[in-house]
Amino acid sequence: MSDITVRHNPGRERFEILDAGNVIGKAAYKEYDGGESPQRIFYHTVINEEYGGQGLAGVLATAALDSTVDAGSGIIPVCPFIKKFLVKHPEYSASAVPVTQAHLEFLDTALAARTRS
User: What is the Cα 91 distance to its own chain's centre?
Assistant: First the structure.
């Protein structure tokens, strides 16, 4: 590892972790407006295999969740990694929102539309 950074790429609805400017992982989300407050549905987190076991997924999750909380958005943990991360990091519990059927239906529709375009 040389120069690890995390950036928010809102155009692609994801947070990216980079090594020397090259994307080596991502935490993907969809913005969701359920009425009461904005929320981010985190549905997929991945680190390139050759970077596994170095704690980079935790670095990425921390940056993504901190940014989400700072933006005033709720955290919807559909992604198994983010779910586990929230259990280990109760400091995010005030911003975590239980996953509902409405979240899952919205996510299914949004992801299906993305693959058609």
Answer: 16
Q: Which two tokens stand for residue 102?
A: 């409405």
Summarize pLDDT for 32-57 with one digit per residue, the tens. Answer: 987 678 999 999 999 999 999 999 99
- Which residues lie below 8 Å from residue 81, measured CB to CB, with a gap of 6+? 45, 57, 61
Measured between alpha carbons, how far is 4 from 75 in angstroms, rounded to an integer?
A: 24
CA distances from 22 to 4, 25, 35, 67, 108 (A): 9, 9, 37, 21, 29
Domain 4-116 class in CATH: alpha beta
Q: CA 81 to CA 92: how far, in whole Å?
A: 14
Q: Which residues contact 47 (CB under 8 A, 6 or more apart)?
A: 17, 24, 25, 56, 57, 60
Q: Is 75 in contact with 48 (CB distance < 8 Å)?
A: no
Q: Whole-model pTM? A: 0.93
